[in-house]
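Support request from a user on the community tier.

User writes: "When I paste my structure tokens into the form, the page sometimes reloads and wipes my input. The last time it worked, I copied everything first. Here is what I submitted, just in case something in the input itself triggers the reload:"
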């Protein structure tokens, strides 16, 4: 990949350009043209192009989520059964876009996190890319079946975003993966925990059930603070908004629930009485109207306002 120190002019993007090392050159070139049209400085190096690509991609993701929200809440869908709309793949794409925004933000803010590694950034970008592929698959699988309007528009947004993320990933791997200046993995302590796991977290992971102080206890027989796991998750989310580890103890029993943990509710720890004792099951499937993505027994979701 070219490492020219002179700005890249839009007219020269087909010659010696940082875009030559990206899988989707047209999408990359649109960034240069956008910068040129807005009178912003053009990237002098591929690393600068990577930073521009990230911010351009994040802007695309925000725009896509806004458009999906408009479609979702439009007059066209006010008369549509919401269960049917959710099964069309629309809600999947909105949840996945929300997660993509979080992943891209982590990459952009990576310099503020001294514990991040080369593998972290690569994983975040790869996860964001996978989200768009999952969205497109969900739409292909269910959109036509439920006669989802604007299907082509949503699919096009996912495709464009996929190309931008792919370019960002390629630029990162090409310009950071070969320098040797960024660690490719985290070192392990003598007890096999990564160095970024705090001592309090290590104690929590190594503790027995009797040693853990839970914020909520789930029990089917009524002996806990909640009868269902879902209720406990919602209560913990409301009471621990200032952060910290959210610990939920699930007593022995079989819980038929579809758990949807808010994507912004981080550090949730669920622990039970052991394999075969504490069991979580559900039966969502495509035949009953669920999308493949939505059929997960435990997953995260976007909070719609």
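"...and here is what came back when it finally went through:"
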């Amino acid at each position: 990949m070219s490492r020219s120190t002179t700005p890249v002019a839009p007219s020269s993007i087909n010659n010696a350009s940082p875009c030559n090392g990206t899988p989707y050159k047209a999408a990359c070139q649109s960034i240069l043209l956008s910068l040129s049209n807005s009178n912003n400085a053009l990237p002098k190096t591929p690393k600068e192009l990577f930073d521009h690509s990230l911010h351009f991609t994040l802007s695309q993701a925000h725009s896509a989520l806004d458009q999906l929200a408009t479609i979702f809440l439009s007059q066209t869908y006010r008369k549509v059964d919401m269960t049917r709309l959710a099964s069309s793949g629309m809600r999947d794409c909105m949840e996945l876009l929300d997660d993509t925004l979080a992943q891209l933000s982590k990459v952009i803010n990576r310099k503020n996190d001294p514990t991040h590694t080369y593998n972290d950034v690569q994983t975040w970008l790869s996860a964001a890319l996978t989200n768009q592929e999952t969205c497109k698959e969900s739409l292909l699988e269910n959109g036509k079946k439920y006669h989802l309007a604007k299907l082509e528009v949503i699919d096009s947004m996912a495709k464009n975003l996929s190309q931008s993320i792919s370019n960002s990933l390629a630029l990162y791997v090409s310009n950071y993966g070969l320098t040797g200046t960024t660690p490719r993995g985290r070192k392990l302590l003598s007890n096999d925990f990564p160095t970024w796991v705090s001592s309090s977290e290590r104690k929590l992971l190594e503790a027995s059930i009797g040693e853990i102080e839970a914020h909520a206890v789930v029990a089917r027989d009524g002996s806990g603070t909640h009868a269902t796991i879902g209720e406990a998750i919602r209560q913990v989310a409301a009471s621990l908004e200032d952060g910290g580890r959210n610990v939920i103890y699930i007593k022995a029993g079989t819980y038929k629930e579809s758990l949807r943990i808010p994507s912004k509710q981080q550090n949730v720890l669920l622990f039970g009485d052991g394999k075969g004792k504490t069991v979580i099951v559900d039966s969502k499937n495509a035949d009953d109207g669920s999308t493949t993505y939505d059929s997960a027994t435990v997953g995260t979701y976007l909070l719609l306002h």
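Agent notes: The reload is a front-end session timeout and is unrelated to the input. Residues 200-301 form one domain. The first strand starts at residue 216 and ends at 218. Escalated to web team.
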